[in-house]
Amino acid sequence: MKALLAPFRTTTGLARWLLVTGLVLVALFVVLAVFAPWIAPYGFAQSSVDGVKFTKLDPPGPGHPFGTNDLFYDVLSRVIWGAQTALLVVLLSVLLSALIGVPLGLLSGYVGGWTDRVLVLIMDALYAFPSLLLAIVFSFLLKNVLPSGVVAAALSLTVIYIPQYFRVVRNTAVSAREATYVEAARALGAPNSVIMGRYLFSNVIQSVPVIGTLNAADAISTLAALGFLGLGIQPQDAAEWGFDLSRALDDAASGIWWTGFFPGMAIVLLVTGLTLVGEGLNETVNPTLRKRRFATVTLPPRPAPSDLSETQNALAITASDNSAEGGGK
Amino acid sequence: MPTKPELALDPVLEVEDLKIHFALRGSGFARLLGRDTGTVRAVDGVNLDLERGEVLGLVGESGSGKTTLGRAMLGLVAATSGSIHHRPGDGSPDTDIAALRGKALRQRRTRLQMVFQDPHAALNPSMDIETAVGHPLVIHKRASGDELRARVVSALERVGLVPAEQFLSKYPSDLSGGQKQRAVIARAIILDPEVLIADEPVSMLDMSVRAKILQLMLDLKDDLGLTYVYITHDLATAKFFCDRVAIMYLGKVVEIGPTAEIFAHPRHPYTQALLKAIPDVDPNKAMPRDLPRGEIPDAARPPRGCSFHPRCPLARADCGWEPRDLKALVEEHWTRVPVADYEREHALVGGLADLDHSENRAVVKPHGGTVADLDALFDRIRTENAAEPLWQGVTSITATEDGLVFEFAPAAEVPLRPSGPTEVACVLYPPDPS
Ligand SMILES: Nc1ncnc2c1ncn2[C@@H]1O[C@H](COP(=O)(O)OP(=O)(O)OP(=O)(O)O)[C@@H](O)[C@H]1O
Ligand code: SF4
Ligand SMILES: [Mg+2]
Question: What is the CATH number of the domain that holds A99?
């Protein structure tokens, strides 16, 4: 709990305000995603109610607050269900990439040698590749193999983000490997697995939440881009903002704004929210970026001249008490 | 203290001709050219016995190989050659730690433990004191649950972290330096080891805490029957703390013997220099760096013969003089002459690359003059300071067509030899009977 609240206690001013804004935005979408079945007026692939088909491209109005699109779907429902898809895909891909990237980075950094060189080479190659291109290639390959579009999309995003965890964790592990406490653990007779699990892991893991949130923001836009290119999730599988946006392209020319505006806004807001949270966390994890808050020191009032000597005696006593076991840090 | 140490010999560790060389990581360019980038001889042929129950001090300047030797005793660094025989007191079989690997080596570490210089760095910042101190028991599956906690508490009480319950849930960053070192010691003794290697255990602590930690270590030694290797560059604490002291210089033990004898009658010129440099008044002062002339030589290219000879005020002809020393002498001469002279002489000698090696013969070629000019120059340098011990080591200077040829005296072997109650590695000991 203490660790969870740390970002709030340690940030100030603008930084805290940004973090809070980000959290509110993200929380909003999480609520939409979790309670989509209750919040959304219709299903994501529902084009009629009680056998009566919706009007195609109906402008926002009482029946459809955000209007309908060219597939007869209710835009509001698509936006709400889209939050579920987006967060599910992002959560899956971020978790998976951390689950693979972190242990690989730890192993590579601690073991070194050939294992390290080979892994670094592979990861650098993946990292150097434009991420969207990589995602396109993988979703193309996975689309026909996996039954679920959501899982296929999540896996193609996973591949992009593994190198990021790997690089950060490996570099921290390389420097932590030389730390005295690792040598001390070896001197205790700890096997390598224990050293990695109990001595390195907790010290290299700090920056992972930051990468996670920043990756999540990136993953939202990459997922939308995939959908926009028609490589993502199909409209009957789940609602996906990028796909809706691509359908809306034609409408925009004829002055139909609502089919593109609402999914677009959803993407922008969620990406902004996640980025703000990531940057906010970054500030707390990398304190060097942060301007330190100094606690103001209040001095006791000056004693009257008469009892000055007594205070000095008292001070002398506390001073010697402190030096008894003060210890250099 | 037994009068005849031979009778009480029961070594727990026997280090034999131990060598630990580290490959120097030269620049990629040098490696591309296939050049030998050299090795650092951190430990270069050490022989010593650690007697059960004693405190053996390893004393020497920075870079003399103390830490490396201490780490090797735990198998934390691979030996290049030599052996470290461990004779456990609990009846388990003798082994050569230098040859142990993997599980067997990790098992050995229940008998041998280490205390580090920087207690803050030696503790995992994200592990609380209870877990950290009890971890050795968990690793070696010696205790768990309530018994584990009870043993942690008793170890903490032993090292004076009382009330122990108060420290269990603390993190290293919550403790003072002295408290952290106590926790490190608690962790080291919890497996009930027989040897503790303490690498400058108090040098990073406040003055006021140092004596307390050393006293704690002495108490623990008596209570638990420990044997200590105490690594330090601080002679004052060594005098107070150690039964025997080994003085190290450039990866070698140059003198070893009972503390009282070493301090009262230092034999090796290096020991003498160290003791002369130590101010008696302030026992806390670390070893001063203003030893007799010169720097500590590069451990990658140790001097010929006795490695102390370039700095030794008592050096003789057979101490291992070499062309490199002549180069240093000329360079030193140049710092004292006017710039015009320097430029003329430098042009004549043409740099000193001819002298930058350690064989017993060197040819200096004249660059901007004749061999006779060279001869005259070296004559001048020689008369400047005829007492310079280097000249004893030069057996002949001959002018030939090639250039000026210097011949150096052969270097004597300087193994550790008994001299009174101590052993000394110096040609002057034992003194000639004549
Ligand atoms: N892992 C290593 N790789 C390469 N060289 C090393 C390594 N460890 C030590 N050395 C070198 O070996 C020599 C001896 O080092 P060591 O740390 O044993 O000296 P020390 O006597 O403990 O010095 P100090 O008083 O500074 O601690 C030094 O020249 C050092 O640079
Ligand atoms: S052998 Fe002895 S006298 Fe010769 S240089 Fe070494 S320490 Fe000095
Ligand atoms: Mg050292």
Answer: 1.10.3720.10
The tens digit of pLDDT for each residue in B342-351 reads 888 888 887 7
Interval between CA A139 and ligand 3 midpoint (Å) = 55
pLDDT for position A287: 53
- Cβ–ligand 1 distance for B41 under 6 Å, the answer no
Distance from CA of B412 to the nearest CA of A (A): 39
- A203 is a domain residue: yes
Whether A189 sits inside 8 A of B106 (CB atoms) is yes
CA distance B206 to B196: 22
Q: Which ligand is closest to the CA of B62, given by its number?
A: 1
ipTM of the complex: 0.81
3-state SS, residue B114:
strand
| pLDDT score for B35 | 56
For residue A311, the model assigns a pLDDT of: 45
CB pairs A-B closer than 8 Å: 91
Report, as an integer, the average pLDDT of B46-54.
Answer: 91
C-beta atoms of B139 and A327 within 8 A:
no
Spatial distance between the Cα atoms of A212 and A206, rounded to a whole number of angstroms: 11
Of the candidate CATH numbers 3.40.50.300, 3.30.420.40, 3.40.190.80, 2.60.40.1120, the domain formed by B1-111+194-201+226-292+414-434 belongs to 3.40.50.300
- Chain A residues whose CB is inside 8 A of the B72 CB are none
Domain-located, residue A27? no
- Rounded to whole angstroms, how far apart are CA atoms B299 and B254? 15
The parts of chain A modelled with pLDDT lower than 50 are: 288-294, 307-329
In a domain, A310, yes or no: no
CA of B66 to the centre of ligand 3 (A): 6
**Of the candidates B250, B171, B246, which has an alpha carbon nearest to the alpha carbon of residue B15?**
B246
Q: How far, CA to CA in Å, does B319 sit from each of B269, B331, B362, B394?
A: 12, 21, 17, 11
Residue A91 lies in a domain: yes
Distance from CA of B162 to the nearest CA of A (A): 13
Summarised one tens digit per residue, pLDDT across range B245-262 is 999 999 999 999 999 999
Q: What amino acid is encoded at A166 in this protein?
A: F
Question: A325 contacts in B (CB within 8 Å)?
Answer: 176, 178-179, 208-209, 212
Tell me if B176 and A327 make a contact (CB, 8 A cut-off): yes
Q: Which residues of A touch B212 (CB under 8 A)?
A: 325
- So what's the pLDDT on residue A293? 47
Q: What is the pLDDT of residues B308-337, one digit of tens each?
A: 988 888 888 888 888 888 888 888 888 888
Q: Is residue B58 lining ligand 1, measured as CB closer than 6 Å?
A: no
Q: Which long-range contacts (CB under 8 A, 24 or more apart) does A111-115 make?
A: A111/A192, A112/A174, A112/A177
pLDDT at B358 over 90: no
Q: What is the pLDDT of residues B96-131, one digit of tens each?
A: 988 888 888 888 888 999 999 999 999 988 888 999
CA distance linking residue B228 with residue B353, whole number of Å:
47
pLDDT at position A305, please?
Answer: 52
Q: What is the 3-state secondary structure (H, E, C) of B327-353?
A: HHHHHHHHHHCCHHHHHHHHHHHCCCH
